[in-house]
């Protein structure tokens, strides 16, 4: 079983000007397999961090992001994947309130991610194994984004953009508009009898 999503619009609802990014979610042994298929623009150039490791502020580079939300609690998982092999995992409790992030110096083993990249001249493919323990209890909403370009040519794209009638003059891209996320029914992937495994990581926050 799989779910496929295509990022066809900019964050404010305009059509993208290139082959769109696709994200596939598949059931994995101990979580979800997230597969990315995207154009490789190499803009901006690669982060200076080691491929395969977490990289802080990865959102300033060429990146594809997926957000998995529990709308009841506003707890969510943010996964950022870069065509050069770096990644970043954040757990948030409330809008933009990060409470755990991968690769912090004092806790380097926290939130490790198995992530493989195949990069060609004009496209890249990535596979990330997302453990169930990273998902907040009752995950039921989803959005995904792609960012690339430099300076004034920086582009922000969204699976579920801000509706045109909701736009305000001078508004900037904001991927944490949780109210525009849409339903994600993981039972469609995992089967009707499936129950989301309890997370030891999130348990610390919810107790």
Radius of gyration over all CA atoms, rounded: 16 Å
Total number of β-strand segments?
Answer: 13
Secondary structure: helix percent: under 10%
Strand content: 35-45%
Structural class: mainly beta
Profile the largest sheet: 8 strands, antiparallel
Instruction: State the low-pLDDT regions, or none.
Output: 105-109
Order of helices and strands: EEEEEEEEEEEEEHH
- Average pLDDT level: 92
Termini separation (Å)?
34 Å
Question: Which word captures the global form?
Answer: globular
Given the structure, what is the number of helices? 2
What do these coordinates show?
This protein has two helices and 13 strands; from the N terminus they run E-E-E-E-E-E-E-E-E-E-E-E-E-H-H. The chain has 207 residues and is mainly beta. The strands form two sheets. Strands 2, 5, 6, 7, 8, 11, 12 and 13 form an eight-stranded antiparallel beta sheet that branches. A five-stranded antiparallel beta sheet has the order 1-3-4-10-9. The longest helix is centred in the last third of the chain and has 7 residues, at 200-206. The protein is globular. Mean pLDDT is 92; it is low at 105-109.
Q: How are the SSEs ordered, and which strands pair?
A:
Layout: E1 2-7, E2 9-10, E3 21-28, E4 31-39, E5 63-70, E6 75-81, E7 87-93, E8 98-101, E9 114-119, E10 123-131, E11 141-148, E12 155-158, E13 182-183, H1 187-190, H2 200-206
Antiparallel strand pairs: 1-3, 2-12, 3-4, 4-10, 5-6, 5-11, 6-7, 7-8, 9-10, 11-12, 11-13
């Amino acid at each position: 079983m799989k779910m496929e999503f295509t990022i066809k619009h900019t964050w404010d609802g305009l059509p993208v000007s290139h082959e769109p990014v696709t994200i596939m979610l598949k059931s994995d042994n101990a979580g979800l397999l997230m597969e990315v298929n995207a154009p490789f623009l190499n803009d901006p150039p690669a982060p200076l961090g080691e491929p395969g490791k977490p990289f802080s502020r990865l959102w300033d580079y060429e990146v594809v992001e997926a957000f998995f939300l529990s709308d009841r609690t506003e707890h969510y998982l943010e996964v950022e994947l870069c065509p050069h092999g770096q990644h970043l995992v954040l757990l948030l409790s409330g809008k933009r309130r990060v409470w755990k992030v991968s690769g912090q110096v004092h806790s380097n083993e926290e939130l490790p991610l198995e992530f493989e990249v195949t990069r060609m001249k004009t496209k890249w493919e990535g596979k990330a194994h997302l453990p169930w323990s990273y998902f907040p209890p009752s995950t039921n909403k989803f959005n995904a984004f792609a960012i690339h370009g430099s300076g004034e040519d920086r582009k922000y794209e969204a699976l579920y953009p801000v509706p045109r009638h909701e736009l305000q003059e001078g508004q900037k891209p904001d991927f944490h508009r949780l109210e525009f996320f849409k339903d994600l029914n993981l039972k469609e992937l995992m089967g009707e009898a499936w129950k989301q495994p309890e997370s030891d990581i999130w348990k610390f926050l919810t107790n």
